[in-house]
Amino acid sequence: MSVFKRGNVWWYTFRFRGARIQESTGSTSRNLAVRAERQRRTDLAEGTNNLDKTDKRPKLFSVRAKQYLEGNADWSESNLRIETYNVRHLVGHFGRKLLTDIKAYHISEYQVRRKKEAASPKTINNEVATLRCILRKARLWANIQPGVRMLKVRTDIGRALSQDEETRLLAACRKSRSRSLYPAVLLSIHSGLRNEELRLLRWRQVDMLERNVIVGKSKTSGGEGRTVPLSDTAWRCIQEWRSQWPEAKPGHYLFPSERYGFAGGDGPQRGTLQPYDVRPDVPMGSWKTAWTEAKKAAGVQCRWHDLRHTFVSRIAEGQVSDATIMSLAGHLSVKMKEKYSHTRTEAKRQAISILDNPMIQ
């Protein structure tokens, strides 16, 4: 047993099954510190009874989180990237805690902190879901689950851009330092491809004779492998973009990984911004920064997924069946289907409203 004083506050320190525990009691009473240490030892002993029999030593969250990422070989590239992102944020908050120390109120504190960092409720819920998986593997989640509340997430399904918003947004994308942003945004509007479907698109998935795109990995089973014909506008965009890659091979990505820097002159003042370290066999990581800057320049508030909503909304305004829309989009939830059915009904209503015009009676 070891208690010591730091300033006016008593601390305790001891080793428990290979791990060093040193914590403040927050109290100026030595007697209370002694009792707190005893209680802490008891809590640890009880908590370890729920851990795997092969390793009953208390583990830091950072250690378990690393094991969690390394122990899922069957994850897709996308899933691994998302889980790694979640773990990075979680470790910043829980990294130095023992798994047995994490309580429901700690998770509430984490949710508050991430909201202050402007993270969306959906993002925070995804991170807490990763934390839940890690605690479940240690048989600890059931103890705190009743006290954990997920955040409310917006249930609206996005919106379609107006023609003016689209024009301004595409003009801003044209001026972006990321040369791939404009073709990516335009193709999303004209094909309905999700961001991930677009980012992982390879040249072999573009049928230059039939003028269509064959989707590869998708969020849904219905989306994978679907064929999406290209409009004239999208086709011209593809041809223009293809001309910049004369050495492109079928297995290369449409939007490869590349960095940008100023060549010649004195940096940003006189230099020319040019791409370098282009890796055609590696997909673009993200358009997030360029996308955010383009929206700000265009004065348009939207999500990337709203480009897909724009595509579906516009084809729904015509006499297109639900089956055709779902075939092109890959998947529509019941709520999305209801919205686009409503859009189609409104288009028909506007079409027949001309009959009420006195000039044609």
CATH H-tier superfamily of the largest domain: Intergrase catalytic core
CATH fold assignment of the largest domain? hpI Integrase, Chain A
What helical percentage do the residues reach? 40-55%
Please indicate the percent range of residues in DSSP E strands (runs of 2 or more).
Answer: 5-15%
Describe what this molecule looks like in 3D:
The model is unreliable at 51-55 (pLDDT under 50). Helix content is 47%, strand content 14%. The protein is elongated and about 85 Å long. It is α+β, with helices and mostly antiparallel strands and 361 residues long. Strand 7 (256-263) and strand 8 (272-283) form a beta hairpin. The relative contact order is 0.08. The strands form 3 sheets. A 3-stranded antiparallel β-sheet has the order 1-2-3, with helices on one face. Strands 4-5-6 form a 3-stranded antiparallel β-sheet. Helix 2 runs antiparallel to helix 3 and helix 7 (163-174) packs antiparallel against helix 8 (181-191). The N and C termini lie far apart (98 Å). The longest helix is centred in the C-terminal third of the chain and has 19 residues, at 334-352. It has 3 domains: 3-50, no CATH class; 61-147, Orthogonal Bundle (DNA polymerase, domain 1); 163-351, hpI Integrase, Chain A, CATH 1.10.443. The protein contains 14 helices and 8 strands. The protein has helices at residues 30-47, 61-70, 77-94, 104-116, 121-137, 141-144, 163-174, 181-191, 195-199, 232-242, 288-298, 305-316, 322-329, 334-352, and strands at residues 3-6, 9-16, 19-27, 206-207, 212-214, 227-229, 256-263, 272-283.
